[in-house]
Amino acid sequence: MSDLRDLYQEVILDHNRNPRNFGVLDHPTHQAQGVNPLCGDQLQVFLRLNDGVIEEVRFEGRGCAISTASASIMTEILKGLSVDQADHCFAVFHAMATGAATPGAADLDLAKLEVLSGVREFPARVKCATLAWHALNSALHHAGGKVTTE
Ligand code: ZN
Question: In this predicted model, which residue has the larger pLDDT, 98 or 86?
Answer without folding.
Answer: 86
